Amino acid sequence: MAGRAAALLAMRPDVAQAAFPAALRTRLDAVVEIDHGLVVTDFAEPRARWALAGAEVLLTGWGCPPLDAEALDAAPNLRAVIHAAGSVKHHLSPDFWTRGILASSAADANAYPVAQFTLSVILLAGKRMFTMARHYAEGTYKPPSTSQRFGNVGRTVGVVGASRIGRLVLPMLAREGFEVLLADPTLSAAEAAALMPAPWAVELVELDELLRRSDVVTLHAPSLPETHHLLDDRRLGLMRDGSVLVNTARGALIDTEALVRCCAAGRIDAFLDVTDPDEPLPPGHPLFLLPNVVVTPHLAGAMGSEIALLGAYAVADVERYAAGLPLLGGVHQDDLARIA
Asked: Looking at residue 2, what is its pLDDT?
C-alpha cells in the first residue's frame, strides 16, 4: 500500500477515549492518517461528510451511526470497516454487504470478559449468594441445611450454544470441576469433543435433555428467528427444581412472561444480564421484585478499563489491513445468520 490510508473514527467520543489510549493512538498514527480529535456520531454533519469522503478505513464502535446507502455513497474510497466492539449488526446495513468492503469485529476480545462474568455468576449462584444476600438484608436469612442443593461440588452445568463465548466458558467450567453438557445443533459429537482440551470432556446432548439434567443452564446462543424464545413455557418446565438459569447472551432467547411465572413459583432461580422485550426493564417490572431473580444492566461485556482490549484488537486489524494481511476479526455476510 503506497503511503498511509486515511482513517476516520465513528463512535461516541467517550468510547473513542476509552478504546484508544495514548499507546494505541501512537500505533494507529504509524499506519494510517487519522485525526483523533474528530469522532463522528452523525455522518450528515458537514465536517464528518468531508472526512468520510476521503476515508479508506472506518474505525467504528458503540454509538456509530448506521452505515446505510446514503452514508456509503458519501464514502467512495471506503475499503474497510473495523469495529472496536462486538456485533456489527447494529451499524452495517444490508446495503453494506453489496459494496465489497471488508468488515472486522473485536467480538473475540469482548468474549473473554463475558466468559469471566458468566463463570463468576455460576459459582456465586451455586452458593445461592444472590438469594441469600437478599434474605440477609431483609432479616429472613437462615443458614442452609446440609440436605439442600447448595454448593458447586458435583454439579452439572449445561451450556446452550458453542458461540465464541460458549467455547471459552466450556474449559473454564471444567477446570472448576463441573460436569459439562453442551447443546448446539450445528455441531457433531466429534466437533463438540474437540472443543474441550484433555483431560476434560463435554457431552453433546439435545437441548431438552440438557435442561432436564443441568443444575445450572447458561445461554450463549445468538438471537435469530429460530432461537427466539428458545426457552419457552415447555422448556422452562423441563428444568430441575432448584436449578439456575443464566443469560449473558440475548434477552430474546427467553420468553420473559414464562420465566416470570416459573421463577414466581419458586421452581428455578435466574440471573439475567440481558432482557426482552425491554432492555433496560422498566422500574417495577416483576423480575425486579422476585427474590430468586437478579437482573443486571448488560454488564458482562467489556467495560471501563476492559474497553481498551477492544481498541487493541481493532488496531491490530488496522495494522493487518495496512500490511495487506487477512483481518483477524473478519466478518462476512454469510456469518450474520449465526452470530450475535
From this structure: 55
141 & 210 share domain: yes
Q: Is 135 part of the annotated catalytic residue set?
A: no
Say if residue 132 is in the same domain as residue 219.
yes
Whichever domain contains 323, its CATH number is 3.40.50.720
Mean pLDDT for the stretch of residues 66-88: 96
* Cα distance between residue 143 and residue 321, in whole Å: 58
Q: What is the dihedral of CA 118, 119, 121, 122, to 10 degrees?
A: 120
Catalytic residue among 261, 298, 306, 319: 298
CA–CA distance from 165 to each of 104, 171, 204 (Å)?
17, 11, 17
Catalytic residue among 164, 220, 235, 250: 250
Nearest 5°: the CA angle 127, 129, 134 is 145
**Active-site option among 279, 285, 306, 319:** 279
Could you tell me if 206 and 188 lie in one domain?
A: yes
Do 230 and 269 belong to one domain? yes
- Rounded CA gap, 182 and 54, in Å? 47
Same domain, 146 and 165: yes
Which amino acid is it at 162?
A
250 is catalytic: yes
Calpha distance 249→103 (Å, rounded): 22
Cell of 267: 421452581
62 touches 314 (CB < 8 A): no
Q: How many CB atoms lie within 10 A of CB 131?
A: 18
Provide the whole-model pTM: 0.90
Q: Into how many domains does the chain fold?
A: 2
What's the domain range around 29?
5-105+304-337
Same domain, 121 and 19: no
What is the tens place of the pLDDT at every residue in 1-27? 457 999 999 999 999 999 999 999 999
Q: Checking DSSP bridges between strand 156-160 and strand 293-295, what pairing results, if any?
A: unpaired
Enter the C-alpha cell of residue 136. Answer: 440477609
